[in-house]
């Protein structure tokens, strides 16, 4: 026999029923199984791509406000020599900018309204080399931050919550206080609002206030910057660079990258993405195991063919190979179609979603509620390749039992009533 006859017969069985009436229903069930696999794979690719897009959008907005790496004194006090620390850090090939800062929690009050905020003291020119927000506002809003004038720039949402605009006065209340005979009196300082910013990230727009570095040092009574911020050439290398900088700078400082500073958000996104992938993979699994019923019916329908092949010298292993080829073909075709459909939709989400919104007259991401008004998508090979591999593996596993049953058909019993 032709050593490739298993492939030929398996492919023939896959196409069987299109013109015949005996096994037309089997061919229909096979087509439904392939369609199920394709839709499951496509849904998994589209959902993960959209989740990647949201993650990238939020991450980019977050990193427009914060630095990639922060260096602090181990005891939280001012760095003894921040210039030397910054120069040492700049020797690393990944470091592109460094800026000193003072950061502390405080209360911002205006009248009876009071909000908690993270107050960050910065040098506007140096800060522009570290964050995109500072680079964008350096010559406008941040230029108003001059030492000794007690000016403050608030996040847009924080300013709205306090009901302040440019030129209004706010009072900063620091955590520490002054000890007097009457008790501990909190330290207060009045600032003039000289601008606001909207980074597009609610956490920072609603809880971040910027003042000049020298004003922050005087307000929080520290001798100088409490840390140095760094910008890297590759944001994804932040964790490895932080480890290398920690060994370079010694034990007197603490080095933290942005993934650890925002660890809870980062971990939550990864867990959500992983669980979503598992749930959607079950859809692919159900569609793949529909191949079991298809192949079982095919084996029953082809018992006489199997018996004839056995009498011609085909081994049980060859018979099993025929039906593995049939099931694997359905899996490959379904997976390939699903990957193609998923990528087509994922790369055109920005066109498809607005078209659906116009047709239905609804907005999936209203600008009044969400900061992101468009549906982002970011297909990644690291997601698509595992999806395709899992789909193919499930389809192959679904062929094993029906193929084994086909190999156990007794030729004499199958041909008795033929």
Question: How would you describe what is shown here?
Answer:
The chain has 418 residues and is an alpha+beta fold. Helix content is 55%, strand content 19%. The chain has 16 helices and nine strands. The chain has helices at residues 5-15, 24-63, 82-90, 124-127, 132-137, 156-162, 202-205, 213-220, 238-249, 258-261, 263-301, 303-311, 316-346, 349-360, 381-407, 411-415; strands at 69-73, 95-110, 113-122, 151-155, 169-180, 183-197, 208-212, 227-232, 253-257. A six-stranded mixed β-barrel has the order 2-3-7-4-6-5. α2 (24-63) runs antiparallel to α15 (381-407) and α13 packs antiparallel against α15. The longest helix has 40 residues, at 24-63. It starts with a helix and ends with a helix. Residues 17-21 have low confidence and may be disordered.
